Amino acid sequence: MSAARILIVEDETPIRRFLRVALEAEGHLVSEAATAHEGVALAAKEAPAAIILDLGLPDADGITVLKRVREWSAVPVLVLSVRSDEAGKIAALDAGAQDYVTKPFSTGELLARLRGLLRDRAAEAATAVLTLGPLSIDAADHRASLAGEDLHLTRKEFDLLWLLATHAGRLVTQDMILRAIWGPAHAGDSQYLRVYIRQLRAKLGDDAADPRWIFTEPGVGYRLAEG
Amino acid sequence: MSEPRRPEPEALLSEARREGRGRLKVFLGAAPGVGKTYAMLEAARLRAAEGVKVLVGVVETHGRAETEALLRGLEVLPRRRVIHSGRILHEMDTDALIAHRPDLALIDELAHSNLSGGRHEKRWQDVEDVLAAGIDVYTTLNVQHVETLNDTVARITGVRVRETVPDRVLEMADEIELIDLPPDELIARLRAGKVYVQDQAARAVANFFAKGNLTALRELAMRTAADRVDAQLQEHMATNAIAGPWPTQERILVLLPEGAVGRDAIRIGKRSADRARVEWFVLALTSLRDEQSRRADGQDETGPALRLAERLGADISTLQVEGDAVSEVLDFARRQNIRRIILPRPPARPWLAQLLPDARERFLAGLTRRATDFELTLVGDEARAGRKRHAPTPPDLPHGLRLAGIVIAVVAGASLVAISADRLFPVLSLSLIYMTAVVSVAAYFGLWPSVATAVLSFLTYNLLFTEPRLTLHIWSRGEFLTLVLFLAASILTGNLAARLRSRVIAQRAIADRTRKLYDFSRKAAGAASFDDVVWAAVSHVATVLECESILLVPDEGGALAIAGAFPPEDRLEPRERSAAQYAFDHGEPAGRGSGTLPASRWLFLPLSGAERRLGTLGIAYEDGREPGPGDRRLLEALADQVALALERICLSEDLAQSRVTSETERLRSALLSSVSHDLRTPLVSILGAAEGLDQPGLGPQGRDILVETIREEGERLDRYIQNLLDMTRLGHGALRPNTVPTDLRELVGAARHRLRGPLRDNPVMVTIPEDMAPAHVDPILIEQVVVNILDNARKYAGPGTPIRISASTHGARATLAIEDEGPGLPPGASGHVFDMFWRVGQGDGGQGGTGLGLAICKGIVEAHGGAIRAEPVHADGRGTRIAIDLPLTNPELTH
Question: Which GO terms describe its biological process (chain A) (predicted)?
Fold first, then answer.
């Protein structure tokens, strides 16, 4: 993966320190900010390729930073949340964060998420067939096949799989799926989504109780495996 | 009395209490020197001759030869040596006595005070111990040492003894033998030096042994013994349910029938009781009707009479009778073993009125007829403030004017009807129209209006219809008969109607009182806190009795403080306060209308619970009047209920408090030990592994192990902290499930994904129908539940054992079950696994858990309105199944 500039906005020095070590080991360039104020300033000044943002900062909460940054930039943002703060996590996703990891997180998991954010699959897929291991999805003629077998997806099932696949490895919230496929009027109709996810799983040969492809983030959304 | 008499429970109880105890015999004397010890020894020798094992605990012979002679041949317990103020003295050795286990112990001088160092301060306490050990005791006592007689003796003789014996010890005696010696002989013995008198100056002795004193003391001793015999008899009667009276001491009852003043009767009762030296009772009869008329005219003679009786030392009771007063009175008298009944004579009435006997006369007649086994004494009754109560009284003027109007209108109406019927019917029939008017008035307005109607009707009839018309001239026999018939009808019907009306009023008052009491008990039952009960009490009392009310309870320091008042009041005058304090301290009413501090504006009643005094309830009327007997009784009934309600609340608050305290204590110590153990252990591993990484010569394999250790222990620490946080959130009730339809298969999948590392060694089998209806739960919280249960199953069942997850629906509920194949729960543990800090195999030997995981599950599941339980999988107790019931539909929608 090419070197990218990553901004870490986090007030805890030890966390910044090990993140820097891990990210630099991956070949990234790292900027650090310890406060919300500093974070917004660095995001503007250095135009990072991705931001790792802690939600609990000393001078303002992370959501504020996120909203300020979203005023001018669509830079991918990975939020660090704590487990007991489900509401903060969901608010951050609503405010435009792409994904989150829950503290304490494993460095491997964080790097995987970051990779998912940095890869622009939509751009990749605009001209080509999207391939995730044995799963290949052809946007032009709306066909998907698994290990060479055609999946016979309906129009909506294909749209759902395409949306998940273009965000493979990334969290896609229920809200986001419902708006994109059924339109803004259906943002709350999660029962549609459950039905289609179940059908899609059946066609993918995936087991909800022991998933291979579609992973559930309870109460938040879904994540497609990267292959 | 057709009802079979049952033995009184208290009598049976005291009998039972005595079983297994030794029997106490007291040799009672009037003064020292009458020969009590001698008599005791003689009796003991007789018993010893019968083969009874007699032991002399202590006998003071005072060097008298004939007494010492009696001691010979009896076994004497060695005395205990006590050094007191540098002198060697001897005391009875109670312990040795009991250890010796004789059949009968002789213990002289019951009133003796022990020197320090013994079991008890007083010898009678030692005697109680000996009796309790099942040993019979003979003892001696002079009447001057009986506590309640102490004052009397001091008054008679001018000598006060300090050593006293409580009356109950004497009451406890199974037998009392009076050792009597005529005063002259005693004085002779004193002169002969045969009487040992302890430490008393010769002069005082001479005074004490004056003949007058001795006579008085002798009578006192005889009376005490006789009283005791009487008490025994009463007890015997109660135990064997023998209906009284038995002619022993003639107890006296002063009976105040309804409407009597009775102060003279009370004074006579007191004099008779004093002369006979017997107990006396005052029994006041009331009925609701009586109370109401009293309340209406603001007069109450019975109250002061009863207070007089109270001051004169009578035992006072009030009996509310509505039916057969005579039987109730006789029943009371028989129960109290009364021989003589004194009651005030009903006031004389004109002979004509006596044709219709009033209530008191009827009562007296009934009593005379049926009280055949009692002596009845009738005494004069003072006039009741110049008015007769029970003859129907003419109505008051404004009311009277209205009634007069009604009477005239009715007679006028009857006349109109009669005039229009005049042509059609014979004159005599017309009188019946007037008769109808008379009867109607009697039925609706009572006696006096109907009498007036009768007279007026007669006059009108005479004036209008008898020849010559328009005069009142002619008096024929027939017309006189008409007048008499009119009057008779009016009196009969009027009386009947009045009686009916008063009965209705009485019934209504009873219903009203019952309702008021019931209302309060309902209010009090609903009150959840002490303050609620207090408020319910004061507001209810104030409303029901139309007065001010106040409730005082002791604060932590024991001082009475106002807990509530209606209308709200936060201070009391010192005089009122001392009345309240008196009521509280003595458990008796105090203040207005009582015998104590009657100048106080408030009347205070004590609130007594089963174990302690709870406080005092006070009422005061705005116009400063005394509460009437009806109000007083209602107040007493209310006070009882308030006391009950307060006690209930106090007890439940105490209970809840102690339960909360002990539970908090337990949790606190469990938390401390858990924190110290469970937080430290992972830290130790992490620090150790981190330092290990620094070691030179560490191979890549060793490095991997150390890194893995740090990671795993870090995760364990995180789980622990998360559990503590979750528990805190649950404990604060801050947890509100955000429920949405959730696919349980997905949820299980997510949980397994989160635990994929720890679960890698355990095969997991999931049987959840693909098309199962979604459960209505908070997915984030229930995922946590599943994670906790899976983690537990993995830890306790061990690696390699399979874990089965299944779900099914039952009606409106989904059941999710997670089973392991581990050793199972220890017997009796299934009730505890959801307790905080509980874990299988407590302490260091147990699995590295926090003891919080399942407690959190329980909290979360219950917050969903679900249930969680633990049970063995197999019949032999192996395997653990944790089953969770969750709602399938939105509970908010179904409600």
Answer: positive regulation of DNA-templated transcription
Structure tokens at B119: 């079991």
Could you give the CA distance from residue B230 to residue B337 in angstroms, rounded to a whole number?
A: 11
Q: In angstroms, rounded to a whole number, what is the distance separating the alpha carbons of residues B813 and B801?
A: 29
Banded pLDDT at B381 (limits 50, 70, 90):
low
Which residues on B lie below 8 Å from A216 (Cβ)?
743, 746-747, 749-750
The domains of chain A, with CATH numbers, are 5-118 (3.40.50.2300), 122-224 (1.10.10.10)
- Under a CB-based contact definition with an 8 Å cutoff, are residues A8 and A46 in contact? no
Which residue does chain A place closest to B783, by CA atoms? A218
For chains A and B, CB pairs below 8 A equal: 65
Q: Tell me the ipTM for this assembly.
A: 0.76
A194 touches chain B (CB under 8 A): yes
CB A11 within 8 A of CB A52: no
∠ at Cα B298 (B296, B302), nearest 5°? 110
Quick: pLDDT tens for B584-631. Answer: 888 888 888 877 788 888 889 888 877 778 889 998 888 877 777 777
- The verdict on a CB contact (< 8 Å) between A211 and B778 is no
pTM of the predicted model as reported, rounded to 2 decimal places: 0.42
A218 shares contact with chain B (CB less than 8 Å): yes
Distance CA A217, CA A172 (A): 9
Q: Is A212 on the interface with B (CB under 8 A)?
A: no
Q: What is residue B11's three-state secondary structure?
A: helix
Contact yes or no for B249/B285 (Cβ under 8 A): no
Q: How far apart are CA B281 and CA B267, in angstroms?
A: 12
B753 closest CB neighbour out of A83, A104, A215: A215
Task: Using a CB–CB cutoff of 8 Å, tell me whether B528 touches chain A.
Answer: no
Residue B777, beta-bridge partner list: B740
Helices (H) and strands (E) in chain A, counts: 9, 12
- Could you tell me the end-to-end alpha-carbon distance of chain B, in angstroms, rounded to an integer? 61
Window 797-816 of B, Cβ < 8 Å to A? 805
Question: Hey, what are B485's tokens?
Answer: 């018939």
Residue B128, both tokens: 């109680």
**How many CB atoms sit inside 10 A of residue B428's CB?**
11
Q: For each of the domains in chain B, give its residue range(s) and CATH number, in order of start.
A: 9-240 (3.40.50.300), 251-379 (3.40.50.620), 397-503 (no CATH), 527-647 (3.30.450.40), 721-894 (3.30.565.10)
3-state secondary structure B630-649: HHHHHHHHHHHHHHHHHHHH
- Per-residue pLDDT of B317-362, as tens digits, reads 777 776 678 888 888 888 777 878 888 887 776 666 666 667 777 7
Q: Worst-scoring range by mean pLDDT, A79-83, B33-37, B721-725, B829-833?
A: B829-833
CA dihedral B105, B111, B115, B121 (to 10 degrees): 90
Nearest to A118 by CA among A27, A209, A38: A27
**Which range (A67-71, B48-52, B887-891) has the least confidence?**
B887-891
Asked whether residue B768 carries a pLDDT value surpassing 70, the answer given is yes
